[in-house]
Amino acid sequence: MDFSANKQDTYEKRIASLPDQPNMQPNELKAYFDSSPEQLRQAHNGLCDALTEATSNASAAANLGFQRTAGVPADDVQAAVENVQAQLDAAVMGNIPSGSVDGDKLAQDVRDRFIAIENAARSEASTRSSGDLNLQNQINAHTTQLAAKCEVVFGSYSGNGQASQFISLGFSPKAIIVAQSDGTMINGNRIQGGFVLPGASGGVVIEGLGFRALYSDDRYWTNVYNRQYYYIAFK
Question: Which of 66, 145, 151, 213 is a plausible cystine mate for 222, CB 3.0–4.6 Å?
Answer without folding.
Answer: 213
